[in-house]
Structures are given as C-alpha cells and as structure tokens.
Design a protein that fits this description.
Length: 402
C-alpha cells in the first residue's frame, strides 16, 4: 500500500506531482518536508490543513476532519494566514449548509479566526457582510442545533453592533426574535439574544426601531419579563430586557403602544413592587415610562392612582444619583402638560399635591449632577417648554432638560 495517495500525477515542468493526498492515506502527521507535490493535504502544518479544507469543500466527512484540525490551530493562535483561513471556512460553510458536523466545526473555527483578525486589522466591509450573511444562512438550516447557534452568536458579538449589521437589520432582528428567543430556549442563548437586541435598538433610525416593534421584539421582551415577575426572580437578564424596551421605545409611538397593549404597565408595577432595590433596573424602567409619557395618546394609561403613587414615591428616590427621581419627574411633567382638565377623573391624589411633590424633588437635585443624555430630537423638550399653564413644568423641570 503506498504511503500517500496522489491525484493528477506529474507536473512535467517542475518534475513533481500537482497534488499529494496524505489525508486519506491515514499518515497525516507523517510527512512535512520534501514531499514532491505542489499541493499536499495533511495535518503536519498550517498549509496542509488549509489545503485539505479547500480541496475537500464538497466531501463533508473529510472536510469535517480537516476543520477540526483547523479549529485546534485557530484556538491555539497558530494560524498565520488568517484571511486565507477565513475564506476557506466561509467556502466550506456555504457549500455544506445541511451537514451538521461541518457547520459546527466551521463556526467554531470562525470564532477564533475572526477574533484574531478583527483585533489586528480592518476587515473590508464586503467581507464582513459575507461573514454575517453566511452565519444567518447557517442558522436557517441549523436552527435546532444549539451548539452551532451559540457559535454563531459568539461570532456576531465580535462585530460592531449595530453598525456592521445595518445592511441586514430586518433579517437580524427576525433571527434574534424567532430563533434565539424562542420559547424554552437555553438561558445562555437567550442572554446573547437580549444583549444583541439591545445593541440593535441603540443609535438607529426611527424606521429601524419600528422594525423591532413590527418583528415582535417588544412582545418578546415582555413575555420574558412576565416569567421573571411571576417567579419573583431577578436574574441577570432582567436589566438588559428593560434596557432594550427603553431604547426601542425612544420617540417611537408604535413601540410605546406595543408596550402598553401587551401589559407592560402591569409588569412595571409588579417589578417596582418586587425589585425596587435594583438601581439600574429602576433607571431603565423609568426611562422607558418616560418614553411612553411623551406619547400624548398614551398618557391616559398612566393616569391611574396606583401609577401616580409610584411616580410620587420615586420622586424621592436617591437610586442611581438623581436618575430615577429625574425620570419619575419627567413622566409627571408630561402628564401635567395636558393641563388641569386631564386630571378631572383622578381626584386623589390632587394635581396640586403632585405638583408640589415635583417642586420639592427638583429643588433637592444636585445642580452639579453628571448626566449622560442623548436626544434624538428636541420635540419632547419643546413640548414641555411651551406648557405655559403649568410653570412648575416649564420653569423647573423643563430647564433641567436643557
């Protein structure tokens, strides 16, 4: 039996074989130097492994074996030609979407290759887009394979979100909502999905925020929050879920309406009742309620005695500096901007009582407090500054916003 199998025989010009296959001859580690061939498959060095991945791109069993060796090298930081490795893995994935083992080994290799590549050089936009598109193609075939899904999410997290995925924003949101955050999903995968959705809701356009609502992201976040509230269980996902809702509802009436229509205010009340000691959570929830209060057509949902009492209590909150108190005051300021007539059906607590609470809270805020505020527009501020019938709103809170 020959030591190695060869294909294409002699290249007469160079006096050597064009291809030498050490892989199928089961002596992959045996030969490294002095092989009389232009291309050699084996595992003795990076070049042999890379050649194997390229040559066997349509032979799944052998490709899986080659990708496993490539993964070991990538994990150990032993790959020198990272771009060639990346292109070889992408080609392998794109030719074998239906082969589980290839997708698993390929996506795992991709994580380590990209990790080093993105750290050390700028990747062309066209190549980034190919990687991201291929990853979502992988999941369209491998949606039930949790290990492959985890690998894909880990790779996506290495990119700049949302900037690098804006070209496929709609598809990415759909993938996260329908696949990653499906019912009974593994907690680790749900965590990835929530973190990525939150990133997708930040610093994007109104139309992109609207996609989040249309694709069911608001409903999905609320359904997950509901389980935590029912169990009275605060975990590491609760804070980013409310943060996602806060970002997604910013000056986006449709998403605010989705929040109200899907029992968001009920979950807010229960979360305040059970988790009021969690400063970051309280900040995120009150920021979200601030967005809801900016929508005139939704403000009547906030004008219930239990909710007004919660806002009054939070005016006194020292949680997270002045953030919680500030946002509670903002919610009340927008309610007040509708004038005294809007308060007629809520005799207790009286409107003047609440206004006095607001004045007391505002005067206690530290004028040197540092706040990081990003406005998409000045519409909500201008609305309050034009509220001449209630000077407590224009003269005190409105000026703090400017």
């Amino acid at each position: 039996m020959p030591l190695c199998q060869s294909v294409n025989f002699l290249d007469l010009k160079d006096g050597c074989l064009s291809f030498w296959d050490c892989w199928t001859a089961h002596i992959m580690h045996a030969l490294e130097k002095n092989i009389p061939a232009i291309k050699v498959t084996g595992s003795a060095n990076e070049q042999q492994i890379m050649t194997a991945v390229q040559v066997y791109s349509e032979r799944p069993k052998m490709l899986h074996s080659a990708l496993n060796h490539l993964f070991e090298n990538a994990q150990n930081g032993e790959i020198k030609d990272l771009k060639t490795a990346l292109l070889a893995v992408l080609d392998a994935l794109e030719r074998n979407f239906e082969h589980d083992n290839v997708q698993l080994a390929g996506s795992a290799s991709l994580f380590f290759i990209l990790k080093e590549l993105l750290e050390n050089e700028d990747m062309p936009i066209k190549l980034k887009r190919r990687v991201l598109s291929t990853l979502l193609d992988v999941i369209s075939y491998q949606a039930t394979e949790n290990t492959t899904l985890r690998n894909v999410l880990l790779v996506i997290c290495q990119f700049k979100i949302p900037d690098d995925v804006l070209f496929m924003y709609n598809r990415m949101v759909k993938f996260l909502v329908k696949v990653v955050l499906k019912e009974n999903q593994q907690p680790q995968l749900s965590h990835f999905g929530i973190i990525l959705l939150n990133a997708l809701a930040c610093s994007v356009t109104y139309q992109q925020k609207l996609i989040l609502g249309k694709r069911g992201a608001i409903k999905k976040m609320l359904s997950l929050i509901r389980f935590g509230v029912i169990r009275s269980s605060y975990d590491e996902l609760m804070e980013p879920m409310w943060s996602t809702l806060w970002n997604a509802t910013d000056e986006t009436e449709y998403n605010c309406t989705q929040f109200v229509d899907n029992h968001g205010l009920d979950y807010f009340k229960k979360s305040v009742e059970r988790f009021s000691d969690k400063a970051n959570l309280m900040r995120n929830m009150m920021g979200l309620l601030g967005n809801v209060s900016e929508v005139k057509n939704l403000r009547h949902h906030l004008m219930t005695a239990p909710l007004i009492e919660i806002f009054r209590d939070l005016l006194k909150s020292p949680s997270d500096g002045i953030e919680v108190s500030y946002n509670a005051c903002g919610v009340l300021a927008h309610i007040m901007s509708d004038g005294p007539i809007a308060w007629h059906h809520l005799p207790i607590p009286g409107r003047n009582v609440v206004l006095e609470d607001m004045k007391v809270a505002i005067r206690q805020w530290n004028i040197d407090s540092q706040r990081n505020i990003n406005y998409r527009s000045f519409g909500p501020i201008l609305c309050l500054l034009s509220c001449y019938h209630t000077p407590e709103v224009t003269g005190l809170y409105g000026r703090w916003q400017t």
